[in-house]
Amino acid sequence: MLGTGVFFASAALFGFIALNITVKHGEEVAVPEVVNKSVTEALDVLSERGLELRKVGARNNAVIPENFIMSQDPSPGTIVKEGRPISVTISLGSLTTVVPNLAGKSLREARVELNRVNLRAGRFSKIHNKSEKDVVVSHTPPPGREVSRGTSVDMLLSLGPPSREYKLPDLVGLQRDKVKVVLEAMGLKLGDMAVRKDLEHPRDTVLEQKPAPASLVAEGSTVSLVISALQTKEEQPDRKSTVFLYSVPYGFWSKPVRIEVLDAEGSRTIYEEVTEAGSNIELPFAYNDQCTVRVYLDGKLDMERTFR
Question: Which whole number is the average pLDDT over 163-176?
């Protein structure tokens, strides 16, 4: 009789331990609500209760934002065991979106904003405006307009404030140093300066200017000059004569050839023609003291030679 009691007591103890182990390995929890939460929030909430998230579908919804939970199964409050997957349907967002206000944003910022609301940058137009360069002045469709996803938004961009324009004064007859001061005061730049032999004006006198006097030029423009090189006849160096030979490289096509001479008189072009490949060019010319001859082929310097 005693043995039978011990047996039943042992069996009861074993059953309690087994039941306790079973409950701990399959603990029951209440399903939390994840509808209207983002996917990230839903994952956090479910993982805290030992549950998993399983995506079973996705569709557009005009109310629930993209990547938020639309529905769940089981419903909130249902008692399930840990490890149970909770099936959810995720929103793809609305089929339409609202155009944001891009005015005042840089082009880069505007692109980021459009991408955020599933719109695309369309065509660009540009005007001078008080805004900085490449800032959005206006756009179409306008801000607040509801449009389909993927719609292109055309933007009007600023070229920056309009530059000032000046009527160019007559610089002929002025000295080069004075001209430089005048141009800097007007916000203009001194450009190329060619030198020409001249016996009637002092050295460095402006003989020609480009653009011409009274031309309208924008702030920051350059003005090119031709200035006198010689002051008196006594300063004129001895002139020399020579012949320059040049062979155009062989090829299938004719090539534009330009030959310049640079000496005390300045720079001048002595040959500029489209010349057949393989042709020989023979050019007699005169120069002062010494000179440099430069040959440009297709606009690129091909040869440079000095004569003394």
Answer: 87
Single-letter residue type at 245: L
Confidence check: pLDDT of 287 > 70: yes
Distance CA 136, CA 242 (A): 62
Sign of dihedral through CA atoms 156, 160, 166, 172? Answer: negative
Q: What is the pLDDT of residues 184-215, one digit of tens each?
A: 888 889 888 888 877 778 888 999 999 999 88
Strand order in the sheet with 85-91: 52-59, 85-91, 69-73
Nearest partner of 257 among 278, 287, 233, judged by Cα: 278
Complete domains list, the chain, with CATH = 27-91 (3.30.10.20), 96-158 (3.30.10.20), 165-233 (3.30.10.20), 237-307 (2.60.40.2560)
Report whether 141 contacts 151 (CB < 8 A): yes
pLDDT, mean of residues 272-291: 87
- Cβ atoms of 57 and 90 within 8 Å: the answer is yes
Alpha helices in 60-142 (DSSP H): 107-116
Q: List 272's β-bridge partners, or say none.
A: 258
